[in-house]
Write a structure and sequence with these properties.
Layout lengths: L19 E8 L2 H12 L2 E4 L7 E6 L2 E8 L10 E6 L3 H10 L3 E9 L3 E7 L5 E7 L14 E8 L2 H12 L2 E4 L6 E7 L2 E8 L11 E7 L3 H10 L3 E9 L2 E7 L5 E7 L2
Parallel strand pairs: 1-4, 5-8, 9-12, 13-16
Antiparallel strand pairs: 1-5, 2-3, 3-4, 6-7, 7-8, 9-13, 10-11, 11-12, 14-15, 15-16
Amino acid sequence: MTEARGSAGLNGSAYTPGTPCWVSLMVHGMAATQEFYGDLFGWEFQPGPQHLGSYVRAQLDGQEVAGIGQLPPDRHLPIAWTPYFASDDVDLTAETVRHCGGTVGVGPLDAEDAGRLAIASDPAGAVFGVWQAAAHLGTGITEVPGTPTWNELMTRDSSGVAKFYETVFGFEQEPVVSADFDYITLHIKGRPVAGIHGVGNSLPRDRGSHWMTYFEVADVDASLAHLLDLGGHVLKPARNTPHGRIATVADPEGAVFSVVRTTH
C-alpha cells in the first residue's frame, strides 16, 4: 500500500480517467449489511439507481462514499468490494479490456442518469468496474475516517497483469525494487492511485486474484473491537507498516476489506 493523494472527483469535478472513483458491494442481506457498515463507519444511506436491482449509496457528512446493491437470490457470486475506475468512454474501455485478454461480465449499460458502467475481470480473474460519470461523479470525500482511501490488486505475479491495466487505463508503473517484495504502484499523471501486490502462492486458493479496498479509520484497534461486536471477522490482525496501521477483515457475509489509519 502507498498513499493516495489528490482531489480528483472532489469539489464537483470529474475524476481523471484511470483513477479509482467508486467502490461497490453486492450482497444478499441488504438491511443487515447497511446496519453493519452504518455502525462501523457512520454511514447513512440513500436510494441509488435500481438498474441492476435494489441499490443504495452510502453517505458520510452528506457526501457519497460507496454503494451497496442486492444480489439476485439465484446468483451465488463472491461477496466482494469492487473498485470502479473512471473512464471517458466506457464502451471503448470495455473493448480494450476484451482486446487485452480480460472479460466483460456486465454492460456497458446506463445506470439511469447517473452514468454508464461495465463490470469486467482482468486476465487473472480479478473483478473491477468501469464508470463513465454523468450525474454521479463518484466518491465525494476521501482521507477522513469512513472513506475508501486505497485499492490494491492481490495477484500471483504483479508484472503479469500490470501491462493489462497500463494498456486499459493508461497507468504509469512504479515497481518496488526488492528481491522479496513484488509490488507495483500505479500512477495517473504522476500521482499514485492504486497498487498491484504480487503475493505468489500465498494467494488464497478459494479467492484467486482480487482487488482489496482500504477504508480509513480513526483507530484501527478500536475499529477491530467494534467490528467483532458487529459480527465481522479479523483475518489479519493490526500491524504497523510504513504507510500506517493496517488490519484485514471481513464483514458478516464474508466481504474482505482492510482498515487503515494512514500515516500522513
